[in-house]
Each structure stands twice: as structure tokens, then as C-alpha cells.
What does this fold into?
Amino acid sequence: MKKVFLFLSLILLAFGSCTYTKVEVPAKEDTCDTISYANDIVPIMTANCTGCHGSGFSSGDFTTYAAIKLRADNGVLKNRIVTQRDMPPAPATMPDSLRTIINCWISQGAPNN
Ligand code: HEC
It folds into this structure.
């Protein structure tokens, strides 16, 4: 019994002594609010993406729903925004809260709502 107690104490000590930096990660899909393409996604794209991803841009004209929807469905959008997080390219930054909104919208089927 004493050994068990010692063992548990060591485990607690190990966990207790861990420090961690809180990273705001995109929300789990089941905690998402309903996202609107028009009200939520378009303003994010306009502020962070369409400067490059504008009309005629070969890697996606994100002023159009079709171009964004295509990349939401084939996984490329999630990959760049949530997994690799390399869009928008450095030195530009985009808050995690907006990455979360995009991730939620993708998980809801990227509707044109
Ligand atoms: C400074 C210019 C710039 C900005 C701003 C930018 N991008 Fe990009 N993006 C690029 C370039 C250049 C490529 C093509 C090269 C590559 O894939 O890295 C690209 C590629 C992509 C791709 C891959 C497209 C494909 O079909 O392969 C996605 C998805 C993407 N960007 C999403 C975004 C999103 C979403 C934003 C806004 C949050 C954004 N980008 C902002 C320049 C930009």
C-alpha cells in the first residue's frame, strides 16, 4: 500500500511540475457555433486572403465561393489553415480565432449560407 502511494505521489509530482504554454488551438468540430459563409467567411477572406487570392490568381480566386468550396472539400484549405498554418504566408499573421472559424465552417460542409 505504501508503495502504491509513493508511486502515485511520484506521478502527481511529475504532472504537477510540468509547465506548458497555452496554445489556442482551433476548436474541436463538435464545439463549433454555426458559421455563415457570407457573414463570417467572406470578411475573413477579404481581410486576410484576397489581396493575393484575387481575381485571376492561379492558386485560387477566393473572391468566389466556388474556389473556396473546392478547397474546403478536397482538404487543401484545412491543410493550409489548420494543419500547416502557412496561409497567409509570413510575415502576415492571422489569429487562431479566425482559423477556428474556418475550421468550423469546413466541418459543417462549407455551405454557401
Ligand atoms: C501574400 C499572398 C498570399 C496571401 C495573403 C494568402 N495566400 Fe494562400 N497562397 C499564396 C500563394 C502564392 C499560393 C501558391 C503557392 C503555395 O501553395 O504555397 C497560395 C496557396 C494557397 C492554397 C493552396 C491552393 C491550392 O489549390 O493548392 C490555399 C488553400 C491558400 N493559399 C489559402 C489561403 C487563405 C485561406 C488565405 C487567407 C487566410 C491565404 N491563402 C492568403 C499566397 C497568399
Notes: The helical segments are 2-16, 37-48, 65-73, 76-83, 96-107. The chain has a mean pLDDT of 87.
